[in-house]
């Protein structure tokens, strides 16, 4: 019976300078040569997963994107959960009420209005890397394609947002800066469950690597949750094993520990 390993991106596959350790590339190549599935499992929407360093230099069997709302296997879409236009209208009205900047994230596009972010360099970064895949919210009313939303919680009334949305959506905070808003019942763990059902992989044959708050459910759900040495305290507490830091060959050492390579 084949096994499957699921990898977060930011802080796990690559560091905050978007550099992938050579040992990670080597390790995942060996993993797949040994007959084990390797999947990206990210909070990023599919539209934000484009890097050659991940998709070509490493190569994966599939992608779980947008906290389980978009799933691909061997380049083919096998599952998609989109927010309806009515939901997006409701969310945008909520963000306007509580003065909170937002990014709509989807399969092909990300949408944001630069002026609402007050010169945040992350918006410029998105425009640069996405090119035609970066669109404005204001110019595409009623014609959005989004699986989830991220908001800047350094601005606006975050408590108001939480009170308005917590019953209808999963709210995942990343420290004090960013909150992800995901359809209820969806997470990286739900994405792993979908993949396992599709490929007939028993849960006991699943492994997951992560480092942050939106990895916690995944680390708990996989039979072997592996936190990076640079992970948050909460992620480490949710894991079965803590490997070394990303800059100290964390993925290579973690796969070696579990005799997957």
Model description:
With 261 residues, the chain is of the alpha/beta class. The protein is built from 9 helices and 14 strands. The strands form 2 sheets. Strands 5-4-3-2-1-12-13-14 form an 8-stranded mixed beta sheet. Strands 8-7-6-9-11-10 form a 6-stranded mixed beta sheet. A hairpin with a 4-residue loop joins strand 6 and strand 7 (110-111). The longest helix has 13 residues, at 85-97. It starts with a strand and ends with a helix.
Helix/strand order, N-terminal first = EHEHEEEHEEHEEHEEHEHEHEH
Number of strand segments: 14
The dominant shape is globular
Largest sheet: 8 strands, mixed
Could you tell me the strand content as a percent range?
15-25%
Helix count from the secondary structure assignment = 9
Report the end-to-end length measured between terminal Cα atoms. Answer: 16 Å
Q: How would you write the strand order of the largest sheet?
A: 5-4-3-2-1-12-13-14
Rg for CA atoms: 18 Å
Q: Tell me the structural class.
A: alpha/beta
Give the integer mean of the pLDDT values. Answer: 95
Oligomer: single chain
Helicity, as a percent range:
25-40%
Contiguous uncertain segments of 5+ residues: none
Short description:
This protein is of the alpha/beta class.
Task: Map the helices and strands.
Blueprint: E1 4-7, H1 22-33, E2 37-41, H2 52-55, E3 62-65, E4 70-73, E5 76-80, H3 85-97, E6 102-105, E7 110-111, H4 121-130, E8 134-135, E9 148-152, H5 158-165, E10 169-174, E11 178-183, H6 188-199, E12 206-210, H7 216-221, E13 224-227, H8 233-238, E14 241-242, H9 250-257
Parallel strand pairs: 1-2, 1-12, 2-3, 7-8, 12-13, 13-14
Antiparallel strand pairs: 3-4, 4-5, 6-7, 6-9, 9-11, 10-11
Helix pairs in contact: 1-9
């Amino acid at each position: 019976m084949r096994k499957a390993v699921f990898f977060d991106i930011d802080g796990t596959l690559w560091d905050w300078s978007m550099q992938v350790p050579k040992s990670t590339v080597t390790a995942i190549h060996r993993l797949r040569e040994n007959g084990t599935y390797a999947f990206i499992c990210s909070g990023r929407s599919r539209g934000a997963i484009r890097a050659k360093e991940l998709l070509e230099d490493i190569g994966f069997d599939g992608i779980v994107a947008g906290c389980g709302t978009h799933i691909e296997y061997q380049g083919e879409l096998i599952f998609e959960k989109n927010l309806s236009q009515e939901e997006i209208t409701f969310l945008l009205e909520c963000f306007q009420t509580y003065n909170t900047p937002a990014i709509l994230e989807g399969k092909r596009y990300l949408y944001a209005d630069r002026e609402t972010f007050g010169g945040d360099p992350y918006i410029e970064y998105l425009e640069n890397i996405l090119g035609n895949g970066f669109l404005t919210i204001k110019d595409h009313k009623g014609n959005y394609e989004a699986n989830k939303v991220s908001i800047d919680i350094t601005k606006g009334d975050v408590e108001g947002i939480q009170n308005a949305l917590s019953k209808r959506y999963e709210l995942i905070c990343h420290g004090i800066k960013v909150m992800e808003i995901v359809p209820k019942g969806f997470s990286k763990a739900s994405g792993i469950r979908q993949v396992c059902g599709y490929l007939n992989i028993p849960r006991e044959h699943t492994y997951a690597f992560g480092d942050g708050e939106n990895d916690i459910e995944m680390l708990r759900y996989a039979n072997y949750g592996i936190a990076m040495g640079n992970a948050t305290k909460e992620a480490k507490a949710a894991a079965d094993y803590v490997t070394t830091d990303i800059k100290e060959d964390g993925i290579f050492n973690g796969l070696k520990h579990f005799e997957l390579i």
